[in-house]
Structures are given as structure tokens and as C-alpha cells.
Amino acid sequence: MVEYNELIFEISRPGRIGSSLPESDVDKIDLYDKLPKHLIRDVQAELPEVSELQLVRHYTALSNKNHGIDNGFYPLGSCTMKYNPKINEDVARFEGFSRIHPYQPEETVQGALQLLHELQEELAEITGMDAVTLQPSAGAQGEWTGLMMVKAYLEQKGETRTKVLVPDSAHGTNPASATVAGFKTVTIPSNENGLVDLEELKKHVDHDTAALMLTNPNTLGLFEKDIVEIAKVVHEAGGLLYYDGANANAILGKTTPGKMGFDIVHLNLHKTFTTPHGGGGPGAGPVGVKKKLIPYLPVPRVEKDGEKYVLNSDHPRSIGRVKGYYGNFGILVRAYTYIRTMGPEGLRQVSESAVLHANYLRKKLEPYFEAPYSQVCKHEFVLSGSKQKKLGVRTLDMAKRLLDFGYHPPTIYFPLNVEECLMIEPTETESKETLDAFAEVMIQIAKEVENNPGVVLEAPHTTVIGRLDEVQAARQPILRYTKEKAAEREVVKS
Amino acid sequence: MTATYRYLPDTKQDQEEMLSFLGISSTDELFEDIPPEIRLKGELNIPAAIPEPQLLKKMHELASQNKNANQYPTFLGAGTYDHYIPSVVNHMISRSEFYTAYTPYQPEISQGELQAIFEFQTMVCELTGMDVANSSMYDGFTSLAEAASLAVASTKRSKVLISKAVHPESRAIINPVSAGQGYTVEEVDLAADVTDLVKLQEQIDQDTAAVIVQYPNFFGSIEDLAEMKKTTEANGALFIVSANPLALALLQAPGKLGADIVIGDMQPLGIPMSFGGPHCGYFAVHKKFMRKIPGRIVGQTKDEQGKRGFVLTLQAREQHIRRDKATSNICSNQALNALASSVCMTALGKQGVRHMAQLNIEKADYMAKRLQEKGFMIMNQSPFFNEFVVELPRPVKEVNAKLLEAGMIGGFDLGSDYGFDNQMLIAVTEQRTKEEIDQFVEVLEASVNG
């Protein structure tokens, strides 16, 4: 393939255009007749000027420099990079879903409201909650929404509690969301088995504890088997339990956060429910709650009134709006389509396969890497590159070496409590052949570290670009294209 | 378990081989760490699986219960608009190398996405006249709330002034955010269809972190940013402008009128209405706030051979590094919609985006004049872009019902959010033809007389 390294601005030529709009069918206007001069644009925005084919070639060339799930295995732990079904993409683009306005009269969007209402009920069933809001845009916004409900609930009870407890293995969003919601974060260390240390937890839980945020299975892929006791400890002190649904792919149809004792749950539809990650978004982060928190759910809520579906904002104790309109509807359509495709048995098999695959791969790799928590895992597991580090090769190097074989590496250096961590989540949609082939490559890399470390240290060898200077990127930030910078580049080239 | 689900590849033999490798006889043994008392006994109570052909039919039926803008010309705007989206946009964002990828953490195999974001950042800077833009945010509303948070954090002041002419949902969303972070929000009243500058001067003080206005504002009117900047600057507050990116093709860039932060939603440029989401917030700042900007940012750098490449940068601000000290809890952006918007801006191009904006301003102007000729009162006293407010002699709801009968979606009722009974906010984009506009005016006229 011919190398392509141009920016869209660099192939732009004055006078070209990539679209056709009609001429005006109404009277022309001179802006200077309508607006004061200082509010009229004086310098035109330098947007690209290319033909339609040039545009298509440019973005196609860019796509060729990108690895997605459709290109190959993507065992990025905690992100659930499973197959994104094509029917979901088609359905979300139906004009009856994509070309409707959020403020249309309710009677003109009954299909959309019905979909939202049914999705709310199904997600409530899947999580064991009593009601669900579909408003939050993503997991982090779901966390924040959940914590704001905790705050409102406590205030209603006349309590001000300031602490949110978070295990040390938690996602970074947990403590960040707690701060943004106005709480103080207290970190709870894990025990030697990688689970929440119940004794440590008891030390920190008190009358000032608003909530405990927990992922279960946790980010090590381990099920917090003391969860019933943990819930009891927090509830007895008057706190609430928040379930980070990032790892819900392990428990569909097997158990629910509701049964575990959680009061609030968010789900990442872009993980468990196959909506595409899109290179970083858009996602969706619905939040489910137990009965006592229902009054605090964001408004408007989608409700059924007889045979009609309605949007109801008349909930005086609601925390208000957390997102424009009704959430990322296009994403919700995709998740709904997926749930309809799978049904209850299908969803249960999703988790059974996801967990089987993770354990199979774990057992295949454990002889070659340090396994800090060698026990049955759920949908993902962690390995440590500590053995390889002693030989002078870091986890980052092994990750880069995987690129040479067409794999996206696992999540690395997370969770923070595992040295040189590799976090592997194979998902249920990969075939046994893929798992076997990946295992072979990992084993080959482990052997290379011993016999030929240079090939790992200098990796990647086959990608369009080598390792990039991230320090320079941060020290002397170039965050946009300018003609002057382009000119500098020409000098460097010549 | 045989491979009865098309997304689950395990055959019975695969499963047996994996189980036997693990030395167990059933997947149930892998779930024994879940205490029995919290295991589900039966299946989830959700509807049964539907094969693809029937499911497509069902989804078509559900979609057909919604009246879409293709069948029903829409005159609704109020933050979400029915604009032309070039066909190439959908084709480019349907490249699954883009849409099935995660956040570009491995730059060597994510150069496509990273470069696309770098180009998006550049286009946003061009339109807004600002120095630095991030890779996108959830939507314009959350961008606005994040901008307020930035202002509060950087000025160490605790009051934010927001014009009542800012979108009601922006003003609604900022409330729980401010409650979480402990700053107060005061609204600045209207003087007719724009922000009341006298009130603004009265309310602003040394504790004001920011003044937030919308450009064009919720009523379509074009606020005089230059005047507001004077007041804001004199009091040491930051000036935050929420701007429609399409309007910026013709309007003076907020950056040139003194904005410190410019935010908004890219929806008008390449993103379908989709019942309100997903859209795509943008966030642009003056360079002095470069290291305080929330969300992901892509920067240009070099590889070992000196070859140009792109990486996520300035990550020291972010939650996965800073945890509870991060500048924001947000870790995702709307990358795919930012891509859609980039492709749309590229297709329209430097000339096309101006042409589109010009069509909007002309069509809205035409419709307003037609309505005035028929004796309707247009409430905007300032120049407007593609939206304006008309006063009707009857409730908007009734008029909208008539419009629906005639096969059109009417405008936004200003009664509930502003108490402006019988006032309708009408948006006229380039999608609306002269015939549709004329027909709308006729129905309005008839509904008044009938």
C-alpha cells in the first residue's frame, strides 16, 4: 500500500468543492444590510477545499491506518471490545429514528418513546433494579448522575455525608466523578486475593460514608464473593452501594447488581450491549436505581400513560436534567436491537462464553507470565509482566510487539495495583481459533523476551509509524494545523 | 451450547475442548464464586430472541410510528436542526476501522483516528477563531457546563452569570453541575429578544467567574458580543460563548470578539437529529487555558525516524492519571460524530459552508417577511440567523396540530420555558423549500382565521 501522510488541509486547493447545494429559491440578502459590520466575519474560516473523490480517498486512507474490532482481535481489558453487529447500524439509520426532532409532539414519536420505555424496563430486569434513566451519555456521566442522586437522597433524609469509598483497583472515573459531585474520595486497599479487604472497609465505613463504588467482577476480573457482607456493612452505616457496570458482560442472566445489594447501577451500552466505541464515543450510560431512589431520577422520564407513551418532567424531587433531550437515542436504538437479537438465553450464553474464553486464555498464558491472582476469573483477567521486566523488557514493549502480529494489545498498566499489568478481555464473540492463535503469539513473545529481547524492545516493526515522542507532544504542544507549521515541516523534509 | 447465535462462535466441540482444558465439566463451575443466594434461578424476564428478518421488520414498524423530517418538513430548531448531510458523511463514518475502534491509546495503529481528530480540532479553531480545541464532548449542553466549571476553577470565583437567552436545557443542566461543585448560577434577564446589558452590568461583580451567552441566542437573535465583552473584561470574568458552528461561517468569530471559551454542538454540520442524540459538543479555548481544557486532545509529534505522527496529549489533566484531582471526570468523547462533522465540513468546504449558512439566513428572512406581510408580529428586534419568534393569536399547540394535519412539523412553543404564551420559535434551514415555507405561512394564516 502506498504510504499516505497528508493532512486534509495540505491537499486543499482553492476553488474545489465536495458537495452541491442548491442556489437560493428566495430573495438574496446582503449581510451588510442585515448585520452591524463588526458582527460579520472578516476572515473566512480556512476549511478544506477538495473534490468528493479526494475526500473519500483521504478518509479511506486514514481508515487504513486504524485498527478496529472488524480488523482483528482487540482484547482490551475493561473495554469489552466485542463484535458490533451490523443490523444495529442499519436500524439506527432508519429515517424514522435518525430524522426525528426531540421536540416533536409526543404523538408523532410514539415509536421512539415505546422503544425507550421498553429498553428502560429490560435494563431494569437485567440489572435487578426498579427503574432506569437512559439520559447519561456515558459511564462517567452515569456515575456522576448516580452520585448526585445519592446526594439528593441523603439531603432529603436530612443527612450530609461527605465520603465516597472507592477500592484501589477502581476505574479512574470513579474518584473523578465523586470529586465532581462534591464528595471526598477514600481509597480502600485490596487484600492479597485482589478483593476488597473487608476489615479495611469496616475501618473506613462510618456515619460520614455516602456511598461505596464498586465494580463486580472487579477490574482484576475477580468476583467480589463477599459482596453480600460488603453491602451489609455499608447499608448498616446508612450508606448506599453504587455498581460500576463496566464489567457487566460477566454476569448477564447469572446474577444482578440488585441481588448483590447495590442501590444504583450504571451500564456502558458500548461495552456489554455491543454499541460501537466509535474511536472514543458516542456511548451511553443508563443508570438504574432501587425503589427508594426513583424520585430522584433525572427528568424528563419516559412513562406509559394508558396506551400512550409520554415524557414526564413532573417529579419535584428529581435531580433535574443531566443531558440534553433524552440521552444518546441513536445508541439506545442499537442496544435495544441487540437485546432483541439475543433474548434471555442468548444474553446468558454471552456471559457464559465470555467467562469461559477468559479462563481458557488465562490458563494457556499462566505458565509464561506472572499471574498475581491465579484463580477462576470472570470475563477478564490480569497478568503481570514482572518476570519479563527483570529481563529488561517492559509490558509496554510486549504490547508494542503484539502490534506486529495484527493484534490490539490488552489494557496495560491498569489496574494500578498490579505491577507491569496486562489486562486481557477476550469477549464471547471471538472464536477458539482466535484465542489459540493469540495465545501462541503471546507465548512466542514471552520466549523472545528470553532469547531475543531486541526484537521486542524495538517493536513495532510493521506499523505505519514507529513509537511516537509523547514527551515532545506534551512539552511543545502542536494541537492544530497552521500553514506556518506546515512550512516548518517542508524545511525539515528538504 | 451449540452455535445458535450468530454472534457466538463456540461449537459444542469448542466448548468441550475448552472445558476439558480447564478440567471442568460445565461453565457453571466458573460461576461458583457467586454466592448461591444471589444467583439467578431462572432466565431473565425479557422478550425472546428474534431472527434478523423478523427483527428488521419489527424495527421498521417501530420507526414508522415516528413522523420523520423526510415525510414531514420540520420547522423545529431550538438547538437541533434538520440540515443537509452529504452522502459521503455516512459512507466515511461507516468505515468500520473507525467505528469499531476504541479511544486511540495505541497510536501506532490509530493514526487514522488521531489525524482525523487533529483535523477536527483545526476546523473548530478556524470556525471559532480560538487557539485550541479538544477532540469533542458529549454535547453542547455538557460542553457549556464544563466551560463554567473551568471558569470557576481558574478564576477561583464562585458565581456564574448565564443569559436567559441561552438554551433552556443548558440552563437546566448547569444546575446539578453547579450543585455538585458548589458554585452559584444567576440568570441575566432579557431585554426583548437579547440579553439585557444593563442587568448584566448590575449583576456582574468581583465574584463572577464567567458570563455565558449564546450566539445566535435561543431566539435566533445575534447578540452583540463586543458590548458584553467590555463588561465581562472590566470585572475580570471569563467570557463564554455558546455558538452554532454553522452560523460562524458568516458571523464574526467569537475569538475575535474577545471570547475566552467557545463551546457548542456540531450537530448542524453532519450529524442527524436522532431524537436529540448522540450529537457532538465542541470546546475551544484561548491558549492560556490550554492545560485546563477538559476531555481528550490530540497533538502532533514525531516517531523515532522523525516522521510526523499524532498522539493523545496533555493527559496529565485527565481522570485515568489524576483520579480524584482530574479537571473533569469525562473519559469519552464523541469521536465518531466529530469525524462525521469533519467529513461534512470537508465536503461543504470553505465555500459550501458559507453558502449553506447564507441559505439559512435568507430562507428565515424570507419566511419572517412573508409572515409580516400576513400581519403576524415577529418578536425579534435584533437581526437573526435561521430562527425567529412569531406571535400567534392562538396557543402554539393548536396551531401545530393544524400544521401536522397539513403534513408539517411546527415550531417550538415558548410558553412552558419562558411563559411567552402564543409565541412560536421557527427554524428555517436550507432543507426547507420556498413551497414548503409558503405552505406553512398559508396554514398559519388559515389557522388564525379558522
Automatic annotation (TrEMBL), chain A:
One GO MF term attached to the UniProt entry: glycine binding
Q: Which CDD domains match?
A: GDC-P
- Sequence ranges assigned to domain Glycine cleavage system P-protein N-terminal in this UniProt record: 33-298
Q: Which cofactor does the UniProt annotation name?
A: pyridoxal 5'-phosphate
* Keyword Transferase attached: yes
Q: Which NCBIfam families match?
A: PRK04366.1
Function per UniProt: The glycine cleavage system catalyzes the degradation of glycine. The P protein binds the alpha-amino group of glycine through its pyridoxal phosphate cofactor; CO(2) is released and the remaining methylamine moiety is then transferred to the lipoamide cofactor of the H protein.
**Reactions the enzyme catalyzes:** N(6)-[(R)-lipoyl]-L-lysyl-[glycine-cleavage complex H protein] + glycine + H(+) = N(6)-[(R)-S(8)-aminomethyldihydrolipoyl]-L-lysyl-[glycine-cleavage complex H protein] + CO2
**EC identifiers of the protein:** 1.4.4.2
The answer to whether UniProt assigns keyword Transferase to this entry is yes
| Gene responsible for this protein | gcvPB
- Protein name listed in UniProt: Probable glycine dehydrogenase (decarboxylating) subunit 2
Start and end residues of each Glycine dehydrogenase C-terminal domain = 351-451
Instruction: For this UniProt record, give its keywords in alphabetical order, as a comma-separated list.
Output: Aminotransferase, Oxidoreductase, Pyridoxal phosphate, Transferase
Q: What is said about its interaction partners and assembly?
A: The glycine cleavage system is composed of four proteins: P, T, L and H. In this organism, the P 'protein' is a heterodimer of two subunits.
N6-(pyridoxal phosphate)lysine: modified positions: 271
What protein family does this chain belong to? Belongs to the GcvP family. C-terminal subunit subfamily.
Automatic annotation (TrEMBL), chain B:
Output one GO BP term. Answer: nucleoside metabolic process
Top EC group: oxidoreductase
SUPFAM superfamilies assigned to the protein according to its UniProt record, in alphabetical order? PLP-dependent transferases
Q: Identify one Pfam family in the record.
A: GDC-P
**Alphabetized GO MF terms:** glycine dehydrogenase (decarboxylating) activity
Presence of keyword Hydrolase = no
Please list the reactions this protein catalyses.
Answer: N(6)-[(R)-lipoyl]-L-lysyl-[glycine-cleavage complex H protein] + glycine + H(+) = N(6)-[(R)-S(8)-aminomethyldihydrolipoyl]-L-lysyl-[glycine-cleavage complex H protein] + CO2
Q: EC number(s) for this protein?
A: 1.4.4.2
Q: Which residues form the Glycine cleavage system P-protein N-terminal domain?
A: 6-444
Q: Which terms are listed as keywords in the entry?
A: Oxidoreductase
Domain of life from the UniProt record: Bacteria
HAMAP family listed in its UniProt record? GcvPA
Main role? The glycine cleavage system catalyzes the degradation of glycine. The P protein binds the alpha-amino group of glycine through its pyridoxal phosphate cofactor; CO(2) is released and the remaining methylamine moiety is then transferred to the lipoamide cofactor of the H protein.
The record describes its quaternary structure and partners as: The glycine cleavage system is composed of four proteins: P, T, L and H. In this organism, the P 'protein' is a heterodimer of two subunits.
What family is reported?
Answer: Belongs to the GcvP family. N-terminal subunit subfamily.
Q: What protein name applies here?
A: Probable glycine dehydrogenase (decarboxylating) subunit 1
* Organism name: Bacillus aerolatus
Top-level taxonomy: Bacteria, Bacillati, Bacillota, Bacilli, Bacillales
